[in-house]
Amino acid sequence: MTPSEKRYFKRFGLLQQKKDSNKYILLFDAINEQSEYKEQALVHQFKGYDFINNFSEIKKYLFNQIQKALRNYHSQSSIDIILYNYLSDISVLYGKELYVECSRIIKKAKKIATKHEKFSILLLLNEWKRNVLRISHHVDGIQNYLDKEVVKDQEYISCVEHESIFFNKSLELTLHLRKKGPDHKIISNLKLPSENPKTFRAKRYAFLQKSMEGYMEFDSEKIFEASSDDVSIFEENPHFIAAHPKQYIISLSNLLDSCANKIKYNDVFDEYLLKITKGLESYSFDAEFIAKERLLLHIIKCKVYSLRGNLYNLKAVRQELKEQYDLTNKKGYKTPDLDIYVHDNLMRSALITEDFSSALESYNAILQLNLGSYREDLQMETRLLGLIPHFELGNWLLLESMVRSALRLLQRKHSHFKLGKLFLEAIKKCVHLKQQSNYKKEDLAFILKQLKLDALSITSKRRLADYILFIGWIDSKLTQNSIMQCIFEATKAGYKI
Q1: Nearest Cα to 301, choosing from 285, 321, 284, 281?
Q2: Cβ neighbours of residue 439 under 8 Å, at least 6 residues apart?
Q3: Closest CA to 486 of 351, 391, 289, 370
Q4: Nearest CA to 157 among 127, 186, 178?
């Protein structure tokens, strides 16, 4: 709950319970002070209070009162709550046989539902309209409904089905990307309609689907186009921005992320970064959403600055990300969906700036996470990147153990991790070579050059964007240039390596 929601609840949410409100407020304040809900701590805290013997009922009642207070608080700001309140009013008036008043509210609600394309609500409103017309024997009204509204009912049903199909398709792709990553082929039984999406939501789901297809095809142009279209449809319909400002900000964030792998989008990135920052300041979002969204912006910014070739700026942006993450955690906000991306970008940026000790710290932080809940390809890529700081710091014995462990893991995986296996075998040879007394730099260069040739032979140009740090590190060994310079040159050339 936001601070204003909490104030509203304490002022108005318990007005009906003046006699017993003190115990509910005590419990509310105690829960509010916890960073994470712990019931046993509450039971211990209120030991000796009379209501502790009926704690589960008190807790349920408090939850219900909070829900009621939040409904009232958002009764004029949420389109869904406004429309469902109208449906409640219609039901009451219909029960009281106040059919004229009932028809008036149906008309008012339909106007709002039509503007915001709430087709399932429009179907419910038309059902109430039919009931009112039937019971009031309004002959002209019934004729008008049969002439005009029956066709509209069919349109509403079609729109609901259309939105459902596009939503389910985008949901299927989301699940696939979250669980498996882009390297796996998806087998789908969901068929999209032949006609283009025709409603605001169906179009948004189609853009989301197109964006995820871009991720699976490693097509950054396709991702950028889909993300741009998603932002455009909001800006062409400002009433949807007013109704769903969070979704608009999330769309802008997706567009920002689509700029990450293309230097030619740098100017667009700066423009939209400023737009999102202003948006977060101008809307009345809850503090947790703002904190998490700002953290996401710092993650994306770090990713973009990793390709810009400016050492000083990247170090500053990396520090900003670290500070924002610490601040978010200090406020007690949990970020399980972002944790690995924070540490991954901290590790990558440290590798690019050749601060290998800091990179190792970030890698160790990743190992503390529950990696099983993240995509397989992201898990494996992170494991491989973790070998670089150990190599640079000369941790040969530990590196040998890590390589053996990673190779055992890859043996249980499918063929999409060929590049990982190549990298591990090459590192294994390099470690063995480094520990020999007659070691020569030319021999190391030969192994790395062969690794690069083999990697490029099995990796598509589009896929190179995800492996650019590996290629940059290898090039830095071969050319004696910095990792940052090698990455910048390859990115600027459009990954023509």
Answers
A1: 321
A2: 433
A3: 351
A4: 127
461 with 495: CB under 8 angstroms?
A: yes
The sign of the CA dihedral 266, 268, 274, 280 is negative
Among left, alpha and beta (phi > 0; psi -120 to 50; other), residue 473 is alpha
Q: What is the pLDDT of residues 197-249, one digit of tens each?
A: 889 999 999 999 999 888 888 788 888 899 999 999 999 999 999 889 899 99
Which stretch of DSSP H or E encloses residue 410? helix 396-411
pLDDT digits (tens, 9 = 90+) for 372-402: 666 666 777 788 888 999 999 988 888 888 8
Q: Are 162 and 203 in contact (CB under 8 A)?
A: no
| Chain-centroid distance, C-alpha 237 | 23
Instruction: Please state the pTM of the whole predicted model.
Output: 0.79
Q: What distances in angstroms separate CA 466 from CA 186, 228, 360, 370, 382, one per listed residue? A: 20, 22, 20, 22, 11
In whole angstroms, give the CA distance from residue 185 to residue 189: 13
Q: Which amino acid is at 167?
A: F
3-state secondary structure of 6: helix
CB 248 within 8 A of CB 292: no
